[in-house]
Task: structure prediction
Amino acid sequence: MRLSRYFLPVLKENPSEAQIVSHRLMLRAGMIKQASAGIYSWLPLGFKVLRKLENIVHEEQGRAGHMAMLMPTIQSADLWRESGRYDAYGAEMLRITDRHDRDMLFTPTAEELITDIFRAHVGSYKDLPLTMYQIQWKFRDEIRPRFGVMRGREFLMKDGYNFDLTKEDAMHSYNRHLVSYLRTYERMGLQAIPMRADSGPIGGDDTHEFLVLADTGESEVFYDSAVTDLTFGDRDIDYDDVAQCAGVMEEFTNLYARTDETHDEALFNAIPEERRRVARGIEVGQIFYFGTKYSEPLNAVVQGPDGKQVPVHMGSHGIGVSRLMGAIIEASHDDKGIIWPEGVTPYHCGIVNLKQGDAEADAACEALYASLGLLGLEPLYDDRNERAGGKFATMDLIGLPWRITVGPRGLKNGVVELTSRRTGVSEELPPEEAVKRVA
Ligand code: ATP
Ligand code: MG
Ligand code: MG
Ligand code: MG
Result:
């Protein structure tokens, strides 16, 4: 992409409505624009990162054997009356009436609809286990939308649903989700700690939230500092291996880590004092096992091996895809702007031409642009007629991991400058070497 043709409406001033750094930087970097309270348009740069996050979620769900599908955003109230949640959900649910006076709603989550699909088509235990998920826009009429995409009213969520014959099978699904979530967040450059939590309106007994530690987080969390030493890394996982998934679950949840809703002072005080931490966190996902809470009222039953009809055991699992963008920026920025982790960066490398119009500099930039493209990398070439200072400021603000700076003076010596956004360290190298380093 060439900046001269790109729509990147960066702001020089700090927008006054933004209270936290991620919101400020997303506005300043021209990634989003508020359409109304808690509702945003995703401009090209923001949308590009959103797609990257979605792709990581799809890849990791696919790896875990979960099937992607898509359900509508507008749903009929009938199913929600059947489950008993239509009234229970309260003011967070956006209710709509169509021209025939039918009660509709904008989906805040989709347990009812997926259960309806299940009951229409699955009748035997032989078709289990089954896990399907979608990445779809949700609407919750939050009383206080704030912090940009972190607490929007319209937001993008991955929601997955498992159907199993027994509680044991459903707990394997639960563990499999935990593993896939650990991998997902790590690929996004984040540490998200599973913490015992409260189930809220989804219901159920077993639930963990995934929290990214950040001072601006809305949740108060209590944990044993040893949990922050755990990483999943690139270990091999067989998602069908019940014991292996249970082992990971055990490893990542046996140390004390809880949100304030389930915090237990006595258990917390049993941790050696120097390891006790009270902090704040951003909820970027949650997994639930809720057994037959929806399958019973909605009559989602299968014939078991003994011929008897039994309600299926279910769980649901959410990732806040759009909120993650805010969380990543909260965790990875400096006073100049965003610092994208490699796995989610909108472009791999910026090219800054210090003297646009200089035949040699232009040609060197074009050559770099082409060779990066041939390697399957996406460069963002600042080919505008602007001062170097402004170009650097934009590149720092939008936070690409690498910047290659090209100017007539360097080219005389056969070199360009390669700068790492994270470390700020620059090196002079021949252009081919710079390309190799970026790849
Ligand atoms: P919160 O406690 O922040 O209100 P929640 O517990 O109500 O979130 P869940 O029902 O668990 O949310 O939904 C799954 C995920 O969707 C959450 O973990 C979070 O990452 C994301 N999410 C929930 N509400 C919002 C929102 N208003 N804006 C952006 N993301 C959200
Ligand atoms: Mg909520
Ligand atoms: Mg919550
Ligand atoms: Mg939650």
The pocket of magnesium ion (ligand 4) is lined by residues 209, 283, 286 (CB under 6 Å). The chain has a mean pLDDT of 96. The first strand starts at residue 32 and ends at 36. The first helix runs from residue 21 to 28.
